[in-house]
Amino acid sequence: QVQLVESGGGIVQPGGSLRLSCAASGFTFSAYHMIWVRQAPGKGPEWVSGINAGGDKTYYADDVKGRFTISRDNAKNTLYLQMNNLKPEDTDLYYCARGMVVTSKVRGQGTQVTVSS
Predict the structure, then answer these.
(1) Are 36 and 81 spatial neighbours (Cβ–Cβ below 8 Å)?
(2) Calpha distance 85→82 (Å, rounded)
(3) Three-state SS at 29
(4) For residues 100 and 109, what is the distance between their CA atoms, to the nearest angstrom?
(5) Which of 47, 26, 27 is nearest to 96 (CA)?
(6) How far is CA 107 from CA 5, 67, 77, 86, 113, in A?
(7) Residue 24, number of CB atoms within 10 A of its CB
(8) Coil, strand or helix at 30
(9) Position 76 confidence tier, pLDDT thresholds 50, 70, 90
């Protein structure tokens, strides 16, 4: 079955870094645009970053541009999000999704990122 499984979240101090991974299975990963989304309890999903199927075009929300880097390894069916210079306001549940919109029904369960001193 179609599955996305995130990992790499955790607790980090402001200014620190984390690398999230999203392992895909059950579909042709290399054929799809992928995105990272974050969501706080009680709030709507927020699009963070996207990457095209070939991995040569990337897109970022303004508040993460220059700090986050999205990438993918189609041979390993894995999506990544390198997060540097993390801020307390980056604290959220992060999940990956297939396609271009935050309402995608193909998404993972998420991994929690907490930025706190």
Answers:
(1) yes
(2) 10
(3) helix
(4) 17
(5) 47
(6) 8, 23, 14, 24, 17
(7) 24
(8) helix
(9) very high
Question: Which of 61-64's residues contact partners 24+ apart within 8 Å by CB, and which partners?
Answer: 63/89, 64/90
pLDDT of residue 104: 87
What is the secondary structure of 74-97 as a DSSP string? TTTTEEEEEE-S--GGG-EEEEEE
Given this model, what pLDDT does residue 48 score? 98
Query: What per-residue confidence (pLDDT) applies to 43?
Result: 92
Q: Spell out a b/e string for 45-61, using b for 16 or more CB atoms within 10 Å of the CB, else e.
A: bbbbbbbeeeeeeeebe
Mean pLDDT, the chain, whole residue set? 96
pLDDT tens digit sequence for 92-113: 999 999 998 888 899 999 999 9
Contacts of 46 (CB under 8 A, 6+ apart): 37, 38, 39, 61, 92, 102
